[in-house]
Amino acid sequence: MNPPLDRRFFPVVERCIYLNNNSTGAIHAGAQSVLQRYYETLCDWRDDAVESWWSELQAYRTELEGFIGAPSGTVVTDANLSTLMGRLLTCVDFNRGREKILPTDLAFPTIPFIARAFRRYGAKLVSVKTDVSSIDDIQLAESFVVNTAIVCLSHASFTTGSLTDIRFVAERAHAVGAWVVIDAYQSLGIVPVDVEALDCDFLLGGAHKWLCGSFEMGFLYARKELIPSLEPAATGWIAGDNPLSFSDQIAWAPDARRLEAGTPLILPAMLSRPGLAALRSAGMGKVRQHSLDLTLQIMNRAEQDDLEVLTPRPSTKRAGTVAVQFPNAETACARLAAKGFVVSYRGALRIAPHGYNTSEEIDQFMDALIDVRKELE
Questions:
Q1: Hey, is 16 helix, strand or coil?
Q2: 50 and 117 both lie in a single domain
Q3: Is 359 inside any structural domain?
Q4: Rounded CA gap, 304 and 322, in Å?
């Protein structure tokens, strides 16, 4: 079966077998002309370029909204997930009987680190223990109590790629009055995501992994009904109702732009549009099925060769990553890279094909992995 993403537009696949998309996705070739156009604009600068750039940024946000099934005016962008998560937490008064922030122990380190920083404002971090390979949705839901302010969930684990049943957990979190905040960095671009179907309150992600975009480009979705109540303490002039008037901003923007801060990041948004457009054109249904086929191929080969697979086998419980464990796995990762097979190590060897990878590449990689493992025995 042909890959759903056209390999001609992802130059890295010509240089190596690239299976590292959960760390950094392959940039789309369309980014090259964006860089040139941006450079030429700077070389011949006129202030009216700001309006053109603003339109580019707005277009990217609109495209993101369509990609995740979000209403207009509910997505904002900034440098990274951490910046947006921290700003969101400044909207919360943790001294009104709801002080607990609940992530799981499989969360990416940024979530608990930020939560701890808000202890000075009354927040309490309570990490929910989970299995090393997957999240027990029922166990997680049973941990919620009435004084929970925010439940932070990873849609897909960054270590193993295991998926959480967000809607199931969100229903129980909402029953105790908690906000549901989703880290979708490891699912967006490889798993179809619809924020309204998930029933989450906020969803965070970024462009440089499965979305094949730029570094320095994070984004945040906020449930439309909650936006009027959000007044972040960490803010900036772009969050005002009419920032391009360059007048004193008194009122908040009526939409999610109130969660912006200062001068926005334009170039990363522009660089991220070609990759997002490629995914939208291919169709996430096709990308998802291709990913499931390749990850199942990896799991079958790994089990045949006695590699411990940490990623859940059911297709409903895994995203785009297969994590395998064996002695000297970290050293093997470096040796594989030297041979032109690019994966990553985060406590286990993570293998993450995308819509431009092929079944033949998986076989070549697994052959090389077994050879390297034997070398290290």
A1: coil
A2: yes
A3: yes
A4: 15
